[in-house]
From TrEMBL:
One of its GO terms (molecular function) is metal ion binding. This is Copper chaperone CopZ. It comes from Paenibacillus nasutitermitis. InterPro entries: HMA_dom, HMA_dom_sf. Residues 2-66 form the HMA domain. SUPFAM superfamilies: HMA, heavy metal-associated domain. It comes from the Bacteria.
Length: 66
């Protein structure tokens, strides 16, 4: 398992957090989201889910991943 930290811009409320959690859960990834800092920390199997796939799922929701 690899731990990855993503900076997500545009999350402003708990609904935003829930949306990002749901998108990551759909990929089989779970993580911890810090709304105040705009940080998503996930543990994932790089053989199953790439960082790009996670970024794409979050960006599809309208957030920016830097």
């Amino acid at each position: 398992m690899q731990q990855t930290t993503l900076q997500v811009l545009g999350m402003v409320c708990n609904h935003c957090v829930k949306s990002v959690e749901d998108a990551l859960n759909a990929l089989g990834v779970s993580g911890c989201i810090d709304l105040k800092e705009g940080i998503v920390v996930v543990e994932h199997d790089t053989n199953k889910v790439s960082i790009e796939a996670m970024k794409d799922a979050i960006e599809y929701l309208g957030y920016d991943v830097v």
